[in-house]
Description:
Elements: H1 7-14, E1 21-23, E2 26-30, H2 36-43, H3 46-49, H4 54-65, E3 75-81, E4 84-93, E5 106-113, H5 123-138, E6 143-146, H6 153-161, E7 165-172, E8 175-183, H7 184-191
Parallel strand pairs: 5-6
Antiparallel strand pairs: 1-2, 2-3, 3-4, 4-5, 6-8, 7-8
Amino acid sequence: MIKSPHIKIIQALFTMNLNEYTHENITFFKVSDKDLAPIKNWVETPHVQRWWPDSWSDKAYRDISDIAKDIFVDNSMIIRVGDTPIGLSQVYSSLSSLETVLGFDECGIRFFIGDPAYLKQRIGRAVIKELVKEIFQRTQFERIICEPQADNWPAIITLKRAGFRDHGRVQRPNCNLVRLSLVRGLHRQQSK
């Protein structure tokens, strides 16, 4: 992780209780020991394995072991529908991402629905909308970035339907990505 005098400021700005966030049946929980088995199962499913690098899973496993870490940004959360865990989301800042180029006022998101029974149910769009709402309510970020692989059409379509704008392709080492973003002002307009 990059050392910066801004780390304490960022952590103070984005600290929140991650025990539970609920809205219309969608709940986000900080990852814990009990989530290790479902995460490992999900990342082995073909629809997740194709687009979810091992380094992102490693981040979730580290978040499980870091029980003292109770911040919204730079953390992994289990996505639940009702009482059923269905996937994983990550919110990250420029301080923790070596892969995505982010400005100081931007954060990135990653997500997947791991349980195949919940695919093609429009749950992804609802999850993203709730995650975006939480980010803009609880942080001072002005823009949320997501960079799915260019052939990950389910994620790209889900993000666009949740209000993200397409900024075209981005080349990273061994990756061809699509950069999508949602700015705070556009989110406010869409929420009205």
